[in-house]
Amino acid sequence: xxxxxxxxxxxxxxxxxxxEERFRTICENAPVMIDEFDHDGxxxxxNQECVKQLGYTFDELRDVEDALxxxxxxxxxxxxxxxxxxxxxxxxxxxxxxxxxxxxxxxMWADFRLPxxxxxxxxxxxxxxxxxxxRLRQSQKVEALxxxxxxxxxxxxxxxxxVLGNADLLADEAHALGEEAGASVQEIVDxxxxxxxxxxxxxxxxxxxxxxxxxxxxxQVVKDHVDTMARxxxxxxxxxxxxxxxxxxxxxxxxxxxxxxLNVVTNARDAMPHGGRLTFTLQEHTLDDETARLHGCxxxxxxxxxxxxxxxxxxxxxxxxxxxxxxxxxxxAGSGLxxxxxxxxxxxxGGTMLVESTPGExxxxxxxxxxxxxxxxxxxxxxSQRARLLLVEDEASILRVTATVLxxxxxxxxxxxxxxxxxxxxxxxxxxxxxxxxxVMPVMGGAALYRxxxxxxxxxxxxxxxxxxxxxxxxxxxxxxxxxxxxPYRIDALVAEIGRLLQTAGAAKA
Length: 510
Known about the structure:
By secondary structure, the protein is of the alpha/beta class. 46% of the residues lie in helices and 20% in strands. The protein has three domains: 31-125, PAS domain (Beta-Lactamase), CATH 3.30.450.20; 213-377, Heat Shock Protein 90; 388-509, Rossmann fold. A five-stranded antiparallel beta sheet has the order 2-1-5-4-3. The chain has a five-stranded mixed beta sheet with strand order 7-9-10-12-11.
């Protein structure tokens, strides 16, 4: 070893110590994990980032004979880590490392050989980034599922519109043939109606459905759901229902209510792995100004369905995030979509979902629905008003049955199979009193037809749109506030809506 002239042995020792101290300071405060283990598996170096990410302090590790066993309880994973430490090729590899609190962290580690022959390891934690990647994949799956569901729903809604329309046309003749024929037609109607309900549930699950609220016997829907859940939940979960009789009707969508309850009950079941009590209570609830402001809804009276479990409960930090999309309390076993979906459906109702929880004491979820208007709307009736309609529909079978229905109701009906042909008829005349138009069609869709009709005609007629889709995006900005009927529709409902719009247009002209 060479010594510089004029530098004493003591000065060299001091420089070496200073250099070592500098190295330790850098290692100790580096924003990456740095550690070193000797050949016997004892910890020699363990910086603050290691403490932050894995929980153990250096004092806790230095007297442990095989500290690596703490981080790699799986023998195969531990053997792989030891082999890579010995090889020290500087390549980063992914490991599943157990922290002091028992949590499994995903980390990248590389091993390097120092000039003195010792090995040092450098690592960084990727648990959160991997979780984000997984959430993105889940989001893409949900989006793909939603697109697939939406396309299937459109085709099925068109088919069910044809089935229901023809069944309604056959109903009068079937009853004339006898009770058995009438019952057969009614079975067709009932089956198609149930099919439409299943499609609405699929769309609600894929978050493509906009809820269609109306007067609903909330107590009966909850009772039916509780009866079903009591049969499906494990025997060690006791289910109770407390509902006053009578209970006011709510302004709600039955399919959406069932979807919300399913999500809430699923979370409650998972919070009681060893059994417990699940209680449903229907009661009236007044929402104060501050809570209403926080949840973006109106203060005042609501009808509440309160679901209470006595499971594990949640701490305050978890409770603050429980309604976030993709946040899951199930350590990778859940997508984190159930609670956020339920909350979104409640917001679509004009209500909200309140969650209260205490660790070890369970969780209380309050679903708040707006009360229904006291005056129930009159049932739809057929109208025999003489008026000229333009029916625009690209599905030939729907066009035929709807034109037949409207003709039987007393209307003069012109037809077109796309927006371009419909626009030509509107420009050529004679004038029509109402356009009944599908939204999505080849050549020219409903939005373009509506826009061009208002640009080119001095007195454009009112429009009633029909669609087999459920997403608002299909309507576009121009159609957002215009009347829409969703397929499959019943004849009486279609004729009644046409009559209402014609009456409104007549009153406006007068």
